[in-house]
UniProtKB/TrEMBL annotation:
The keyword Lyase does not apply. Gene3D superfamilies: FAS1 domain. Keywords: Signal. Residues 185-221 are annotated as: Disordered. The lineage of its organism: Bacteria, Pseudomonadati, Pseudomonadota, Alphaproteobacteria, Caulobacterales. It holds the Pfam family Fasciclin. It comes from the Bacteria. This is Putative surface protein with fasciclin (FAS1) repeats. Residues 1-23 form the signal peptide. Residues 46-179 form the FAS1 domain. InterPro entries: Adhesion/Biosynth-related (IPR050904), FAS1_dom_sf (IPR036378), FAS1_domain (IPR000782).
Length: 221
């Protein structure tokens, strides 16, 4: 069930935890299409986010990637999870060599970082997004930019194509492209060169991601 309170990662203080304050910085009232997205929520689910993804039948590659990154059990059992979910069509649009490279066990940590960038350790409702915009820390520690001030909700450069799909332990936003944690990391590097100290929301080498989301995959003995 989507909660009224947005819980942030242990390593971050997310701007979206105060949706009313964020809305004050928005340039205009929410667009009709965005309002429709907020009101078009499906019935409350008794299934966790992984079970809901499986039931929808269009996230096989995403589920495979979560399995490969050793995140499936954590996402299924942890409370208050939001997933930005690219469909199978999004993965199919990648060059075959790139898709195979990402799913190669030799690149497990890169895949894990990518998947964690598509997860929030927070139950983010549409009414916390509509009319607001700002960064929020992902499960891996890097920030993703969320913009609910236009006709469609934007997650970085990706468009939310389906309103939040409810799950027992959080929600799912279907997006039309993969998010890019490398772009977020590059933004962190630029900020680090400024005179102003970098925000504590940015994960540097050796920092841990959100509680319950270990940064590195376990390696069998």
């Amino acid at each position: 069930m989507l909660r009224t309170k947005l819980l942030t990662a242990v390593t971050a203080t997310a701007l979206l935890t105060a949706p009313v304050a964020m809305a004050q910085t928005a340039p205009a009232p929410a667009a009709p299409a965005a309002d429709a997205a907020a009101s078009a929520l499906p019935p409350i689910s008794t299934e966790n986010v992984i079970e809901v993804l499986k039931a929808h039948g269009r996230f096989a590659t995403l589920l495979q990637a979560f399995d490969q990154a050793q995140l499936t059990e954590t996402l299924a059992t942890r409370d208050r999870i939001t997933i930005f979910a690219p469909t199978d069509e999004v993965f199919a649009a990648l060059p075959e060599a790139e898709r195979a490279r990402l799913l190669d066990p030799a690149n497990l940590q890169e895949l894990r970082n990518l998947m964690l960038y598509h997860v929030l350790v927070a139950d983010l409702r549409p009414d916390q997004i509509i009319g607001a915009r700002g960064p929020i820390a992902t499960a891996g520690g890097l920030e993703v930019d969320i913009d609910g001030t236009g006709e469609a909700i934007m997650i970085d450069s990706a468009t939310v194509t389906d309103p939040a799909i409810d799950a027992a332990n959080g929600g799912i936003y279907v997006i039309d492209r993969l998010l890019d944690p490398n772009a977020a990391a590059q933004g962190d590097a630029v900020e680090a060169t400024d005179d102003t100290p970098p925000p504590t929301t940015h994960v540097k080498d050796g920092d841990e991601p959100a509680a319950g989301m270990p940064s590195r995959a376990s390696t069998p003995e």
